[in-house]
Specification:
This protein is of the alpha+beta class. Helices cover 18% and strands 47% of the residues. The chain is globular, with a radius of gyration of 21 Å.
């Protein structure tokens, strides 16, 4: 009996230790909040980033299929290109090429100096936040927040990236909430109402591990229920 109790206690202790080491990355039930850039600063920053040149170049390369949508969407603070330095990262848009399709880039400044300016691929982001070093290499990560809608369906998610040289690598890309509520009609063949949400956490380490608590509800306010706890995210 004592051996069984000790084994059970060890398992409980290990589970508690893992839970305490997890850090919240994103909770779709909480209202999003991003740091924005005042309007009077936008023009100077977009000029520094070469946003107009990027828009013109895109128009030339793609037959004019670029509607200028110049905007600094969000700013985050951290050490994004080297450990221990104070930097700002800016998410900005320089073209709109279709419904909910935007061409975007990231710029990093150190003081008044531009130290990095890279294009993003299929980001579709509306927000940006800095993340405290999840892989313990001294570099802050960046989290892009994205969403999309269509035909009564919608989804939102996060993409966690780390800047590396003059490029970036993706550590995690996950849908944090999807819903079909707008497509539910009650007619034959109509989908069953469903909202699926993931509260995402990370266990920091040389190779960080990501987990999600998964919730579902039937499109009724406050009706979500936990269906899976600490589901591993690849």
């Amino acid at each position: 009996m004592r051996r069984f109790l000790l084994g059970g206690l060890l398992l409980v202790t290990m589970a508690a230790a893992q839970s305490s080491s997890l850090r919240l990355l994103d909770d779709p039930f909480q209202e999003e909040s991003f740091s924005s850039v005042p309007g009077y600063q936008q023009g100077a920053l977009l000029n520094l980033f070469g946003a107009w040149d990027k828009a013109s170049q895109y128009q030339r390369l793609h037959g004019g299929a670029c509607h200028e949508a110049l905007m600094v969407d969000a700013v985050a603070q951290g050490s994004f290109t080297a450990p221990g330095v104070a930097e700002k990262a800016y998410l900005y848009t320089y073209c709109q090429t279709g419904r909910q399709i935007f061409q975007q880039a990231l710029a990093v400044t150190r003081g008044d100096r531009l130290v990095l300016n890279i294009l993003l691929t299929n980001a579709g982001a509306h927000g940006l936040t800095g993340v405290r070093d999840v892989n313990q290499n001294g570099i802050s990560e960046l989290m892009l927040h994205w969403f999309g809608t269509g035909q009564g369906y919608s989804e939102q998610g996060i993409t966690l990236i780390e800047l590396s040289g003059k490029a970036y690598r993706t550590l995690l890309n996950v849908t944090t909430q999807s819903t079909n509520c707008g497509a539910v009609t009650g007619d034959p063949g109509s989908p069953e109402p469903l909202i699926r949400s993931r509260v995402v956490r990370v266990e920091p380490g040389k190779t960080p591990r990501f987990f999600a608590d998964v919730y579902e509800d039937d499109c009724t306010p406050g009706g979500h229920r936990l269906v899976s706890k600490q589901e591993s995210l690849k």
